[in-house]
Amino acid sequence: MHESTNTSDCLIIGGGIMGLTLASLIKELDASIKIDLYEKLHDIGLESSEALNNAGTGHAGYCELNYTPMGKDGKINIQKALEINSKYEISLQYWSYLSSKYKSFDPKKFIKKTPHVSLVFGDQHIDFLKKRYLLLKKHHLFKSIQFSQDKKEISQWASLTMGGRNLHQKVAATIVKDGTDIDFGAASGAILNTLKNKKNFQIYLDHEVLTIKKVKENLWEVTVKNKISDDIQKTFAKFIFIGAGGHAIRLLQKSGIQEQKGYAGFPVSGQWLVCSNKKIVRQHNAKVYGMAPEGSPPMSVPHLDLRVINGKKLLLFGPYAGFTFKFLKKGSYLDLIKSLKLKNFFPMIYVLAHNLKLFKYLIRESFQSKHTRMNLLRNFYPKAKEKDWSIKKAGQRVQIIKPNSSFTGQLEFGTEVLISKNKKLAALLGASPGASVAVDSMIKVIEQCFSERLLESKFRNKMKKMIPSYGQDLITNKKLFEKIRLSSRKTLGIND
Asked: Is 224 exposed, middle or buried (0-12, 13-18, 19+ CB in 10 A)?
């Protein structure tokens, strides 16, 4: 075993879409910053970013009904859908910039235009969908959304969903035709292609971070193990970003920063039903989202999706959620147990006690037979035959358990960037909408942790070149939004 030392301006843990996006943004802004990226697995983008491990929706709020919740007063709140949609546009802007600058960045390899459809059944859900449609339609971000209760028209949008359906069943749907399907694993690879030949950037595959220790106010000592040679490397870093998916909780605990105390993780697994029968696949050209079953987490909203993975078209239905002790798909069944600390034990117990319905739902889902899962699929695709579908594992998600006090906590289903008091360590926690808003999330990390550089006009000018809407609000600026959307989609090859 050999030991060596290294120094780094910015150390990134995790080679998924988040870590690579941050590395890319920093290098575009200042090529002199030395970045070292460590990935535990043999290649990048194999956990949360890998195509089968996420919905690939290009979360834009078009079809995800949980982003427009109805309050107890019967009013629908569309604010989250607007925020997510505008943040997704920031990702499209940055990818457009990379596409224009680098021949090695080919958007055709990871993004495809795919309509986004919401499909509901019964008077109550139809009433909700229509109210949602009328609210969204008024806003320029969603002006292209359409609504229908006509089965023939809905069949044109998503033909598999209507064939063989009970003639008397009431249905309704909305569609946004300029939605997208994204392979975030391939997107991670495209970003890495722009970084490979840059000076002061180094990626280490098969390297596992063992310890994170603060040695000075502005310096970290990180111990890394080469999993192939067993060599140990000590790296001294001025800044650390933890973008390690579900494993971020454990790495945060190793850092010892005050801000992570009391945080815990609630792991949720997933599975898909997958169809590769070409005759069936070519009949479906959309992402069709429904309503989440009562008591289920947002990540288990059922959807029937056309996916393009490694150039091959597939249909995915699910995900069927479940409970697991793992924090990563390629993690350990001891992950949850090892994450238990004195500071987070009681908040975790409190959350479990107050979410027993959810816990029971996940356990029940874990033991569902394929026959039972096919019955849920037939709500979307009535003619589905069991022989055409196989079960595949989806990715692991670790929902945040956030402490309210020493003894209580709350379960969060969104994403959160946790930053240390001295701004020298940041970590991304949580799941949805995740990858789709990676650029916006990583810009926020840069703004908070590299704030002294933001004061330089040169820095801001570079940011504006990469993100033309930087510093402006696409939710309120209709003229700017329309200009940018047209430009981004044309560059990426997904325009109408």
From this structure: buried
What Å distances lie between residue 491 and 96, 176, 308, 472, CA to CA?
6, 20, 20, 21
- Rounded CA separation 85/332 (Å): 35
Q: What is the pLDDT of residues 38-73, one digit of tens each?
A: 999 999 998 888 888 887 776 799 999 989 999 989
Residue 342 banded pLDDT, cuts 50, 70, 90: confident
Counting Cβ atoms within 10 Å, is residue 102 exposed (0-12), middle (13-18) or buried (19+)? Answer: middle
Provide CB contacts within 8 A for 454, sequence distance 6+: 446, 447, 460
Find the DSSP H helices in 216-314.
248-255, 278-281
Nearest to 50 by CA among 298, 281, 330, 292: 330
- Rounded to 5°, the CA angle 326-329-335 comes to 20
Model pTM score: 0.94
Handedness of CA 384, 385, 386, 390 (dihedral sign): negative
State the Cα–Cα distance between residues 230 and 212, nearest whole angstrom: 18
- Nearest-CA neighbor of 295 among 354, 250, 240? 354
| Number of neighbouring beta carbons within 10 Å of residue 177 | 16
Q: For residues 434 and 184, what is the distance between their CA atoms, to the nearest angstrom?
A: 11
DSSP 435: G
Three-state SS at 431: coil
Alpha helices in 321-369 (DSSP H): 335-339, 342-354, 356-366
